Amino acid sequence: MSSTPSITANWGIPNRMLVGPGRLQELPALCEELGYRAPLLVTDKGLKDLPMITDTLAMLKKAGLGVDLFSDVAGNPVERSVSAGVEAYRGGQHDSVIAFGGGSALDVGKAIAFMSGQTRPIWDFEDIGDYWKRADANGIAPVIAVPTTAGTGSEVGRASVISNEEEHRKVIVFHPRMLPVAVILDPEVTVALPPHITAATGLDAFIHCFEAYCAPGFHPIAEGIALQGMRLIAKALPVAYKNGADLEARTHMLAAASMGAISFQKGLGGVHAIAHAVGAMYNTHHGLTNAILLPYVMKHNQAAIEQRMTPVAQAVGLQETSFDAVLSWVLEYRKQLGIPHTLREIDVADDRADEVGKLAAGDPSAGGNPVPVNAAELAQVFRNAVNGMI
Ligand SMILES: [Zn+2]
User: Ligand 1 center to residue 28 CA distance, Å?
Assistant: First the structure.
């Protein structure tokens, strides 16, 4: 695979980003430059034996760094992984974290770095009011993030979503200093991602952009980034889905995933509110759940968003710019990427709809929905998505 100059770059928004094929090779030099002598490399079980991890460990060791591997990370990030990771971090006297993997590994890696010097339990730092001020800022270790999926955009975020298994809910843990110091967006670490994960994570990124664009409030910076993110994904995702080795499409997807997460500081909405509830109750894949839910939530929000669909239609390449045109495009695009039409197809029934609605209404994402939504309305949208009623 040759390096393509046109997709290689250095960015500083919102953190330092090394972009392009082969940039992972710069990791030892980056650690050295930042003064990290003993990073803890955090990844998930599925990646730990792959060459991208074993080669990276060898490369860091060869550079004289006291690196250790922590890979006790599951598909959805849980508190157990964070506390085990903090123990490994302290035991190995580490000075930094390399969070390397999909959204779960990034969130757990960031949470380990954050919790490495704290004395209070992680739930005390839930993203409510100024709870983050409870943290000892000097006890937060620095993070270098290397995403291997183009989805959550956690590499540019100041929070981790950690499941509270006792309460069956997803908790956002926030601190401004959880933002990774540096990010490597190397498309070569995403080429092995299978098509169905490429589609689900890529649509998650699209929905970050879409919900952020539709969220109420004055934030033209976020809106501009969101529209450009949708433009990139509309073109690049079907290419990456069909040909995982297309480095340009993979780079565009990594960029767009970061853009989605930058833009959603404006807010998310009903798709994420329901998906967080469904994910916590049924352990479904976050991106896939969102991808199924999108058209049902769009339909519910139609009156509030239909006047604003022209830029979205243009971004995804449509001639016709109506709400219906965008909705039809979403349905067709989703189908083309192998996404099921209903939640029932991923084994989610509607018998606990009221519970889903209640949980979703309490999710912070619900506040970004373009129209206020209550538990009963969210339960109805969920029922529609289970049964395929647009
Ligand atoms: Zn998401």
Answer: 31
